[in-house]
Design brief:
The complex is a heterodimer.
Chain A lengths: L1 H30 L5 E6 L15 H9 L4 E3 L5 E3 L2 E6 L5 E6 L13 H15 L9 E8 L2 E6 L5 H6 L9 H7 L14 E7 L3 E6 L20 E6 L3 H10 L4 E3 L6 H5 L4 E16 L4 H4 L1 H10 L2 H9 L4 E2 L15 H5 L7 H10 L12 E2 L2 E2 L1 E7 L2 H16 L3 E7 L1 H10 L4 E7 L3 H9 L15 H12 L3 H18 L2 E14 L2 E2 L1 H5 L6 H7 L1 E2 L2
Parallel strand pairs in A: 1-10, 1-11, 16-17, 16-18
Antiparallel strand pairs in A: 2-3, 4-5, 5-7, 6-7, 8-9, 9-10, 11-19, 12-18, 12-19, 13-19, 14-15, 20-21
Chain B lengths: L1 H28 L4 H6 L5 H10 L6 H13 L13 H36 L4 H14 L3 H13 L17 H34 L2 H8 L4 H12 L1 H25 L5 H11 L2 H29 L7
Classes of the chains: A alpha+beta, B mainly alpha.
């Protein structure tokens, strides 16, 4: 009996010790996430942090941690509350009412409420933002209560909610905007996000510090706030080799979008973790419909069948990426899930079919000649593209493939400004270009909507049928109606073969193994910067 | 001397005016619309037209130049189209870092070149001389971009505490100094090759002069002959080269700044050119021109210091 008591005592002590150890570890695993400095490399040019004046994506890396949108896209690309708590729409769909979260302040101390939100939207965002057009149907914005705001529309506009979650449509302090004037976006930033702007040494680094009061992160994230690292530093490193050397041997913890030709080497490095997912960037061929040769659908089809997408992936993107079956990537809103089934039988590599189509179009190969002719005219096409590897290298591959079927391609490569000038002027037959945007409905509007001629609708795609469908995509009464219209647009694009999708680039996130929280971040198909700010931590 | 300085200073005016005209007109003749470039494809044509009008880009080029010149004479060199900040502020933030890098590279160049050149000349045709010659040619033929990456991968990766890239702290701090090492070596070493060859031949010329033979025949120590009698006189061609190469170093920093993420003016220039950010390109080009003019100016002054027989007036 005594032995039993002793044994029981020992068991109790052991259990206490075990629980204690587990408890200490559990506590440590929570506590240990906080603190430290996370250094992130920015490999793209950064001109300003003023979202109204920069057309670059790079400022969003920083702004996504400092500022927030009213709503946010979750891991299933469904709209969820962020600064808004809830919303409703009137029966006639002309009034959207948003209840805002309470007790939130901008980093400059200005309270976030219906009044400051209205002031920001009316005085700053709508007149100054590039995305102001997304709010054209908004007739009036009214603060009907301290935390209630209404968007009054002149016509039903279901896309409003989607646009409010667009990462470009961030909410900033109107008071900071007014007080800091021209310095806003350079030496000052004020949002409601989990990190606060500290300083920017231009060309070198941006320093953010943790917002200790942040606690309103979206519910689909593991951490609702505050963020874990004390500081997040963005280092501007334009050269890819330098960036990767810094990651492997220097002080950089995390790199986004590493050139594909370096990924294989990084995947073998046990000191770093590599995460991959499809990027938003679809590379495509765009045929200029103002040129008589390209107006012949058989010629466009011949170009499509002459292109083998695998060598493009291999030669240009190191084998990373995937074939594109739509102008939208699969992780963009509005993507038609039937794209692959529909397009895979059309976007095929078939040199014989390509040759047959060219013969049928009257472009025949005279004996002993390399290039096809029709009525004495050689089939010579001007291919204009940009001097960045993601477009220049596929263009070179396309040129070689078209030469195989007897098309003489004159490849001209320019820097962005000069290439845009050529493409806008219509002085080209076709181009290899790309587009990257997470709101697919905007992409469709931009690339194939007639209002976007000549830039970025370089093809001069001018189809009343598509324009009508795009109108439905924007204004359709129900989600189903709008999705169906978006699907029809994507189907029509594949059938017309004016814009021919080639490949979707891969996006990469490479981090030192000391960075934790990558698993949580990877759940989000957009790798939201807000999610990075809240989930990533530095292991001790 | 004073008259000379005034004359040279006045001569800078037409030079800078000429450069400003060439840059102004050539930039605007290059294809590409800065407004579309900066606003991006999402901006409406109306917005593009508004901004173009606001920036005066719809006016004839000669009118634009006249306006720019008038404003420049009043101290207003315009605002960056891409960054929406005054160009002087943008350039002012970065010029110091480029100067740091240039001067540090010059120190590397001179130290390496003079030591190598003198050894080569004194031990002519020896193994040491041949080795220095081979190394000089090696550095000379090395593309800066490649050399930078190699130094980064060979040194920074393996030497703890040697930063791979970035600007670091201020120059007077330890952090600032160590961040300067690799960029300065990358920019300075290829020039050291040129200077070493020059220092060698110049030193050899001087060592064959009668007064050096006389000094030796008097039994003066060889080190005194070399450093006191020969070295100073061999400096004139080197000083000329410094005057010519200083602007080259200044301009060469464009590539080095990109490789090492150095927050200097060269990187600002690169992005400004691609963005067709006319006002920024204009100001930086003027700064580089000024560097060329001042480089020559300082060389002339240095002549008189190195050789008192040279009179500037």
């Amino acid at each position: 009996m005594r032995n039993l008591r002793v044994a029981s005592g020992i068991l109790v002590v052991l259990a206490i010790v075990m629980f204690g150890i587990v408890g200490v570890y559990a506590q440590q695993s929570t506590v240990d996430k906080s603190g430290g400095t996370l250094v992130i490399a920015l490999n793209e040019k950064l001109d300003t942090l003023d979202v109204f004046t920069s057309a670059l994506a790079s400022p969003l890396r920083v702004l996504g941690m400092v500022c927030e949108t009213l709503v946010v896209y979750d891991n299933n690309l469904q709209v969820q509350p962020l600064l808004a708590k809830s919303w409703s729409v009137s029966e006639d769909q002309l009034t959207w009412t948003f209840q805002l979260k309470e007790g939130i302040n901008f980093h400059d101390g200005t309270p976030f409420n219906a009044q400051t939100l209205r002031e920001y939207l009316v005085d700053y965002f709508i007149p100054k933002s590039f995305n102001g057009w997304e709010f054209d149907p908004v007739k009036e914005i009214v603060a009907t209560g301290e935390y209630t705001i209404q968007f009054v529309l002149d016509k039903p506009y279901p896309m409003l909610l989607k646009y409010l979650g667009d990462p470009w449509n961030i909410i900033e302090s109107p008071v900071a905007r007014a007080n800091d004037g021209d310095q806003y976006g350079f030496n000052a930033l004020s949002g409601t996000g989990p990190y606060m702007f500290v300083s920017w040494v231009r060309g070198d680094r941006i320093v953010l510090k943790r917002n200790p009061d942040y606690n309103h992160g979206p519910s689909f994230l593991t951490n609702q706030g505050p963020g874990y690292p004390d500081e997040i530093i963005f280092r501007e490193i334009p050269e890819a080799v330098t960036e990767v050397a810094e990651l492997q041997h220097g002080d950089v913890d995390l790199v986004r979008t590493v050139p594909e030709n370096m990924l294989a080497q990084l995947q073998k490095d046990s000191n770093v973790t590599v995460a991959l997912h499809p990027s938003f960037r679809v590379i495509y061929v765009s045929c200029n419909m103002e040129k008589p040769i390209m107006q012949d659908k058989q010629v466009r089809e011949a170009i499509n069948h002459a292109i083998d997408r695998q060598p493009i992936l291999d030669a240009t993107f190191g084998g990373y990426g995937e074939f594109a079956y739509s102008l939208l990537p699969s992780n963009a809103t509005g993507y038609w899930s039937g794209s692959k089934d529909f397009a895979s039988s059309i976007l095929t590599y078939d040199v014989n079919e390509s040759r047959r189509l060219l013969d049928a179009a009257g472009w025949v190969l005279p004996n002993g000649k390399q290039f096809r002719e029709k009525d004495g005219q050689v089939l010579k096409l001007d291919l204009v593209t940009f001097n960045v590897p993601r477009y220049q290298l596929p263009a070179q591959v396309v040129k070689a493939m078209l030469t195989e079927v007897g098309i003489d391609v004159n490849l001209e490569v320019f820097d962005a400004a000069a290439a845009n000038a050529r493409l806008e002027a219509g002085d080209f037959d076709f181009t290899v270009t790309g587009w990257a945007y997470n709101i697919g409905e905007v992409t469709l509007d931009m690339i194939v909507g007639s209002q976007s001629i000549p830039n970025p609708n370089y093809a001069r795609y001018n189809s009343p049928e598509i324009d009508n469908l795009l109108q439905t995509v924007r204004l359709g009464a129900t989600d189903e109606e709008r999705s169906a219209a978006a699907a029809q647009v994507q189907q029509q694009i594949i059938e017309d073969q004016i814009d021919i999708p080639l490949v979707v680039r891969i996006d990469s996130l490479v981090a030192k193994t000391r960075v934790g929280g990558l698993d949580d971040l990877e759940q989000n198909p957009w790798w939201l910067d807000l999610a990075a700010a809240l989930e990533l931590y530095v292991k001790k | 001397m004073v008259g000379y300085l005034v004359r040279r200073t006045l001569l800078m005016i037409p030079v800078l005016l000429g450069v400003s005209m060439i840059i102004f007109f050539s930039m605007r003749l290059a294809p590409g619309d800065p407004v579309r470039q900066i606003l991006g494809p999402l901006a409406s044509q109306q917005k593009v037209n508004e901004v173009r009008n606001e920036l005066g880009l719809n006016k004839p080029i000669y009118i634009q130049y006249a306006i720019w010149l008038k404003n420049a004479l009043h101290g207003d060199l315009g605002s960056s189209i891409a960054n929406h900040a005054p160009t002087l502020q943008l350039v002012g933030e970065r010029i110091g870092r480029t100067l740091e890098l240039t001067l540090a590279a010059l120190v590397v160049t001179l130290v390496v070149a003079l030591v190598a050149g003198i050894i080569s000349a004194v031990r002519q045709y020896s193994i040491l001389d041949n080795t220095v010659t081979v190394f000089a040619l090696f550095w000379l033929s090395m593309p800066t971009f490649w050399l930078g990456l190699m130094l980064m991968l060979l040194l920074a990766v393996h030497i703890p505490g040697l930063p791979i890239s970035g600007g670091g702290g201020p120059l007077w701090s330890w952090d600032g100094l160590v961040h300067l090492i690799l960029p300065a070596l990358t920019l300075g070493l290829p020039q050291a090759g040129t200077f070493a060859r020059l220092a060698r031949s110049s030193m050899l010329d001087v060592l064959l002069q009668d007064y050096v033979t006389t000094a030796r025949s008097k039994g003066i120590r060889e080190s005194t002959v070399i450093f006191k009698h020969a070295f100073r006189n061999s400096l004139i061609p080197i000083l000329t080269m410094i005057g010519l190469q200083l602007p080259w170093l200044f301009g060469g920093s464009v590539i080095v700044e990109t490789v090492f993420s150095w927050p200097g003016m060269g990187r600002l220039l690169t992005s400004a050119i691609f963005d067709r950010d006319y006002p920024v390109v204009q100001v930086i080009a003027l700064v580089y021109s000024l560097a060329v003019v001042l480089g020559n100016f300082m060389t002339d002054i240095a002549y008189s210091v190195a050789d008192p027989r040279v009179r500037l007036n």
